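Retry 2 of 3 after timeout on previous attempt. Resubmitting structure tokens to design endpoint.
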């Protein structure tokens, strides 16, 4: 009978073993591993994973962590061969009693059996499955050694808080690497496999501490730590962090999403979320925070100029029982220090507010002077003289505590801007994007206005119009007539008549330099007509601003649409000597094994080796090949950099002069103040700013690029260059520098007021006998597109050149202006385009 029983058991075990899974899956184990995104300094700024896991080889897992899990889960791990038979017998005996008494059943699974369950067997708890698990566990022990099994277990196990494996759990619960964990923290992690939800360190802290202390006691009992260490560790508080997965650096939300999209497009979804990629980005975290603050502060400043849109909602204070703010949710995208408040008392000069948790504060009249009611057509209501003009009882508003040492209860009124914008900062020599903010709040709108917003760029395109003239042997002192200009569309009877920003103002013969510095629209269109649009179309495409450009005059004033991203590359080429660089946000990508699969700088340097100069004994710096294409020659690039530096010193960017730094830049404004731009640079940093509404509409009278975009640039540069030594722009070889008058372009003495060093291509310098000035007066009168003359004869002469009679006045308010004369700095900006004319193609 016994033989028959043994035979039956044998047959049963053979049948159970016949279709067991192959252990090959364990031999080639590659678990899904999270991909991690790093800033340029190595800081983790984002993680992407379906299972948040960081694979750690067993050799890198501290022995104390291993001991904690062995003590908690399988104290005889190093003694058994997959199954703890003594534990099975003990559990069987105890479970008979537990069944009778209605108590919870206990188990005797070893770590090896848990590996078998996690990898090879489903989690059904039938006796047949348990036996299959035992068989697999014994086979695993024959194929793998104890360390290999532990490596599988400690990297695969789910430990709650979206953490798979001990390394991810250590980061998620404590923000530490495994090496930095205290013994009590190791014990807590080892307590979690029994049921992470039952031992949450915040929601179920008491139970978690009790389970942790049990593990510490077992570690002492097993001889892994002393009794003294165990007792001391049990006294430790359980302090966990609420570590968020996904984006780790809110200031970089737009940047990180751009990274996610690019890596996804390059390697696919599985590699991004399961492949364990290490993604090193170009991000400078300090610059990124500065950029975000500069953009948000400036957008809020613009928004306050345009008044108060009213409360978020109203509450009936009489009908509310309890905290009136209890059920309200703070709007997305607001700063952490903005809080919800309800107006409870209003007097003429102060308003009392109630915040959550029954905290009371006050808003003073001085803090709401900006809150004039918004009216149609960008108009504002009466000046605020009384709190009743702003608030009503029960108004729910956003407030921010004011920084006051005397009174901590004072708050300022806040409002989320409707206008939006973007800022980018980039190394002009490499194209590495150091900072990028694509909007006021990524939580409110994921639309990245730095990359995705295609807008007309206005006068920020002018430097490239004038650069194309410099390539055609114009010089910075070539004279161009600033006088009324009219063109028609041939068959169409309507005229294209560009205006300068000061409508009705013209400045006569002015240098090419002044055309850029003062952003003269009429000069630009007249120059474009004389050169023809072909060179302008060519440079716009060559510099990467456009893929194609309609060859019509309005395009010379920035009527073409492009993105801030593309403009950045073009401005970088001016600073770096004419080399085209493409903005990049990726430095390199490595796979889960550390192999580099993408590198931004792909230059090879097979001849590079350490050499010592024979005379000085110093190391000779190896030279790498420069693979950047030369899109404009270095002389033209420097001439335009010098002119744009003048725009900061004397022109539309004059508000930046107070920074005391070497800067160049150009404003841009489009029709009806719909878009505002500022593109600028130092010798080693190029920064671009765009401001406007997502659905294009006017930002209001006077809200040009110099008022809405330039302040963002200024706020950013003030911080970004704070500790950077000032240095001049680099002058390429072969440039000829001559002292000239900044306004007239005539030869000047170095000590003469208004004298500047002007850059010339060799052979084009002015002389005392011939100023070297090229007169550009084509189209001085009405310019017709139907084959009629481009000048009206018989008007008079200047420097021996006939000048046409012109319609309108040369001057401001009928007063003549000397060549090169300028309005006050506050009036300097770009004239808007005429949208109707642009759309109808009348140029």
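Retry 2 succeeded. Sequence:
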């Amino acid at each position: 009978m016994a033989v028959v029983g043994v035979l039956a058991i044998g047959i049963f075990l053979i049948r159970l073993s016949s279709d067991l899974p192959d252990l090959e899956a364990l031999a080639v184990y590659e678990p899904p591993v999270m991909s991690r995104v790093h800033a340029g300094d190595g800081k983790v700024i984002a993680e992407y994973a379906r299972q948040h896991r960081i694979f750690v080889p067993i050799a890198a897992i501290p022995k104390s962590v291993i001991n904690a899990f062995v003590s908690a889960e399988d104290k005889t791990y190093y003694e058994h061969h997959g199954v703890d038979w003594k534990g099975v017998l003990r559990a069987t005996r105890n479970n008979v009693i537990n069944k009778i008494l209605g108590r919870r059943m206990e188990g005797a699974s070893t770590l090896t059996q848990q590996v078998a369950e996690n990898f090879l067997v489903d989690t059904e708890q039938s006796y047949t499955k348990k036996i299959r698990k035992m068989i697999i566990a014994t086979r695993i022990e024959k194929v793998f050694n104890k360390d290999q099994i532990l490596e599988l277990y400690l990297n695969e196990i789910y430990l709650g808080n979206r953490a798979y494996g001990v390394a991810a759990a250590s980061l998620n619960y404590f923000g530490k690497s495994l090496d930095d964990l205290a013994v009590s923290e190791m014990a807590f992690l080892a307590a979690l496999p029994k049921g992470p939800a039952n031992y949450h360190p915040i929601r179920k802290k008491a139970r978690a501490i009790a389970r942790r202390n049990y593990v510490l006691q077992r570690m002492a009992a097993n001889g892994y730590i002393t009794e003294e260490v165990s007792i001391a560790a049990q006294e430790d508080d359980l302090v966990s962090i609420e570590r968020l997965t996904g984006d780790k650096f809110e200031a970089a939300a737009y940047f990180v999403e751009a990274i996610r999209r690019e890596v996804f497009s390059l390697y696919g979804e599985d590699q991004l979320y399961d492949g364990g990629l290490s993604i090193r980005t170009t991000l400078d975290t300090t610059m990124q925070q500065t950029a975000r603050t500069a953009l948000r502060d400036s957008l809020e400043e613009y928004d306050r100029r345009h008044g108060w849109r009213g409360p978020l909602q109203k509450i009936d204070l009489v009908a509310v029982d309890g905290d009136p703010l209890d059920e309200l949710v703070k709007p997305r995208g607001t700063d952490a220090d903005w809080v919800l408040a309800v107006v409870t008392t209003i007097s003429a000069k102060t308003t009392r507010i109630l915040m959550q948790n029954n905290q009371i504060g006050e808003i003073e009249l001085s803090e709401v002077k900006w809150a004039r009611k918004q009216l149609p057509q960008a108009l504002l209501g009466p000046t605020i003289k009384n709190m009743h003009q702003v608030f009503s009882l029960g108004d729910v508003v956003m407030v921010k505590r004011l920084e006051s040492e005397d009174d901590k209860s004072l708050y300022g009124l806040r409002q989320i801007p409707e206008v939006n914008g973007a800022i980018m900062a980039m190394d002009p020599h490499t194209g590495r994007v150091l900072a990028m903010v694509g909007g006021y709040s990524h939580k409110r709108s994921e639309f990245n206005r730095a990359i995705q917003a295609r807008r007309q760029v206005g006068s920020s395109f002018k430097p490239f119009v004038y650069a194309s003239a410099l390539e055609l042997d114009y010089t910075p002192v070539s004279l161009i007539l600033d006088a009324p200009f009219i063109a028609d569309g041939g068959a169409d009877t309507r005229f294209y008549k560009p205006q300068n920003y000061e409508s009705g103002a013209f400045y006569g013969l002015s240098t090419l330099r002044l055309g850029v510095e003062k952003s003269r629209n009429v000069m630009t269109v007249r120059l474009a007509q004389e050169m023809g649009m072909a060179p302008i179309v060519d440079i716009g495409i060559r510099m990467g601003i456009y893929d194609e450009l309609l060859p019509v005059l309005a395009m010379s004033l920035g009527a073409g649409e492009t993105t801030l991203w593309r403009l950045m590359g073009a401005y970088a080429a001016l600073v770096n000597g004419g080399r085209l660089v493409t903005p990049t946000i990726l430095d390199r990508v490595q796979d889960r094994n550390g192999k580099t699969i993408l590198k931004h700088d792909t230059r090879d340097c097979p001849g590079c080796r350490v050499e010592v100069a024979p005379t000085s004994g110093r190391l000779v710096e190896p030279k790498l090949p420069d693979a950047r294409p030369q899109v404009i020659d270095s002389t033209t690039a420097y001439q335009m950099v010098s002119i744009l530096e003048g725009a900061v010193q004397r022109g539309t960017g004059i508000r930046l002069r107070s920074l005391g730094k070497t800067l160049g830049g150009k404003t841009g404004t489009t029709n009806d103040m719909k878009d505002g731009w500022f593109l600028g640079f130092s010798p080693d940093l190029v920064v671009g700013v765009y401001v406007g509404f997502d659905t294009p509409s006017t930002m209001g009278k006077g809200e040009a690029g110099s008022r809405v975009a330039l302040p963002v640039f200024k706020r950013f540069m003030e911080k970004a260059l704070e500790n950077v030594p000032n240095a001049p722009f680099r002058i390429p070889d072969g440039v000829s520098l001559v002292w000239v008058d900044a306004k007239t372009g005539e030869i000047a003495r170095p000590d003469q007021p208004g004298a500047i060093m002007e850059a010339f291509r060799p052979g084009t310098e002015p002389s005392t006998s011939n100023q070297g000035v090229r007169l550009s007066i084509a189209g001085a009168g009405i310019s017709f597109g139907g084959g009629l003359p481009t000048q009206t004869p018989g008007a008079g002469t200047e420097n021996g050149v006939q000048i046409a009679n012109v319609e309108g006045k040369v001057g401001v308010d009928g007063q003549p202006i000397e060549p090169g004369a300028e309005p006050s700095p506050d009036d300097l900006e770009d004239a808007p385009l005429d949208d109707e004319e642009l759309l109808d193609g009348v140029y």
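Attempt log closed. The CA atoms of residues 50 and 273 lie 6 Å apart.
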